[in-house]
Design brief:
Elements: H1 2-27, H2 30-33, E1 46-53, H3 59-75, E2 80-88, E3 93-100, H4 103-107, H5 111-129, E4 138-145
Helix pairs in contact: 3-5
C-alpha cells in the first residue's frame, strides 16, 4: 500500500513537471502573437477602421457622399492605398477600412484638412437629405496593424 502511494506521488510530480515544461515550450511563441503598439510603429501598412451608424433609408446618400467627397480627397493623399466600404443590414452600421502605406504618412495629414473634408461631407449629406444634422453617427474609430 505504501509502495502504491509513493508511486502515485511520483507520477503526480512527473505530470506536474511535464505540464510546466509544455507551458514553457509553448510560451516561446507568445511574443509573435503580441501586437505592436501603434504609437511607435511606423513601418508597414496600417488600416484605419471607422464604424458609423447608417440607417437603411439613408444608405444611398451615405454611399454617394463617400464616393463624391471622401474618395477623391483620399486618392490625392500620399500613402493612401485604397479603402473598402461595408454595410451591415441588421445593425444598420457601416464599416470603412482605409489602407495606408504607413502610419507616419497617414498621421502626417493635418487634422484641420480632415475636418474640412468631413464638414464638406456632412454639408453634402444634409443638403441631399434636407436635414439639419449629419445622420451618420461615428460609433468607433481605430487602427489595425497588418500581422506577419
Amino acid at each position: 500500500m505504501k509502495l502504491n502511494l509513493n508511486l502515485k506521488k511520483k507520477i503526480q510530480r512527473f505530470c506536474l513537471v511535464l505540464i510546466c515544461l509544455l507551458v514553457l515550450i509553448f510560451q516561446s511563441d507568445i511574443p509573435d502573437l503580441k501586437a505592436l503598439t501603434m504609437d511607435s510603429y511606423q513601418g508597414e501598412i496600417v488600416v484605419e477602421e471607422l464604424r458609423l451608424k447608417v440607417p437603411a433609408d439613408v444608405k444611398e446618400a451615405w454611399l454617394n457622399a463617400e464616393k463624391e467627397i471622401w474618395e477623391p480627397w483620399l486618392s490625392s493623399q500620399d500613402g493612401f492605398l485604397g479603402r473598402q466600404l461595408f454595410w451591415d443590414k441588421e445593425k444598420e452600421e457601416a464599416l470603412i477600412l482605409v489602407n495606408w502605406k504607413s502610419k507616419k504618412l497617414w498621421k502626417s495629414i493635418p487634422m484641420s484638412e480632415v475636418n474640412m473634408v468631413q464638414e464638406k461631407f456632412e454639408d453634402n449629406v444634409k443638403a441631399v437629405l434636407n436635414v439639419g444634422e449629419n445622420p451618420f453617427e461615428l460609433i468607433y474609430e481605430g487602427e489595425l496593424d497588418k500581422q506577419r
